[in-house]
Amino acid sequence: xxxxxxxDMDGTLLNRYGKVSLWNTNAIKALEQxxxxxxxxxxxxxxxxxxxxxxxxxxxDIICMNGAAAFNKKGERLRNQPLxxxxxxxxxxxxxxxxxxxDFMTEAGSCTITSREELKKSFENKVxxxxxxxxxxxxxxxxxxxxxxxxxLLNTGTDIFKISVVHENPVVLEQIRHxxxxxxxxxxxxxxxxxxxxxxxxxxxxxxxMEYAIKSKIHPREILALGDSENDLSxxxxxxxxTIAMGNASDAVKRNARIITRTNDEDGVALAIESLILSKExxxx
Length: 285
Hints:
It holds the Pfam family Hydrolase_3. InterPro entries: Cof (IPR000150), HAD-like_sf (IPR036412), HAD-SF_hydro_IIB (IPR006379), HAD_sf (IPR023214). GO terms for molecular function: magnesium ion binding; phosphatase activity. This is Haloacid dehalogenase. By secondary structure, the protein is an alpha/beta fold. It folds into 2 domains: about 5-80 and about 205-285, HAD superfamily/HAD-like (Rossmann fold, 3-Layer(aba) Sandwich), CATH 3.40.50; about 85-200, Hypothetical Protein, Haloacid Dehalogenase-like Hydrolase, Chain: A, domain 2 (2-Layer Sandwich). The protein has helices at about 20-35, 45-55, 85-95, 115-125, 140-145, 150-155, 170-180, 205-215, 235, 250-255, 270-280, 280-285, and strands at about 5, 35-40, 60-65, 70, 75-80, 100-105, 110, 145, 160-165, 185-190, 195-200, 225, 240-245, 260. The strands form 2 sheets. The chain has an 8-stranded mixed beta sheet, with helices on both faces. The chain has a 6-stranded mixed beta sheet with strand order 8-7-6-9-11-10. A hairpin with a 5-residue loop joins strand 10 and strand 11. The radius of gyration is 18 Å and the shape is globular.
């Protein structure tokens, strides 16, 4: 019997416009009546995850920044695992020769050492935050960033939970990945062909979800997880009840999942929840 549903957001729970559909919303709310928990596992920061959920009337616990932090439905912190400053410095050293763009996720939101001009050009070309191109204007994106120099970034002492490294050429990103793999204690994932997402090795969706389940006294076989991209593999690779890939998921994710549902624009999350948990057939299985 499933007692917890864990869902990614972009490309999974959210449609192409960054919204939770009515069917998805109703399916999630129906879980509560079955005493089944629902938690989001996302690469977004807390605020960017909370907003579309609240708009849909969904109030749930949130594992964010690929597992670097977690919050309960009241907004109280449950988990905290930033990168070490030495790791941030090393990442900058490795990436510097490749002319990449950066998104540093901190407690106060996102900041970057990329210029406004570079950021705008990259967004307009659907390289930077390509998944938000239909959801938000560049002006909204820019307003969410604090623009810093590298020196001021390193000297503030602010915890950095996740670093997104962005480049239009996947070959360049593979070169960077190769160098980063030689560094201890850094987790490397991706949510698009144009980015790498870097966190502390202890900050992954899979490990954060298992920690959350243990604290909630939920057995792995009582968990259903859904995702679509590489940063979901640590979660979908767990020995849990159901691992579900979206119809729009990457081939690697589909190969690692037990079941494939419909796409995020076809309410694949709701279909999975209704078929495997809410239906009469699921109730007697």
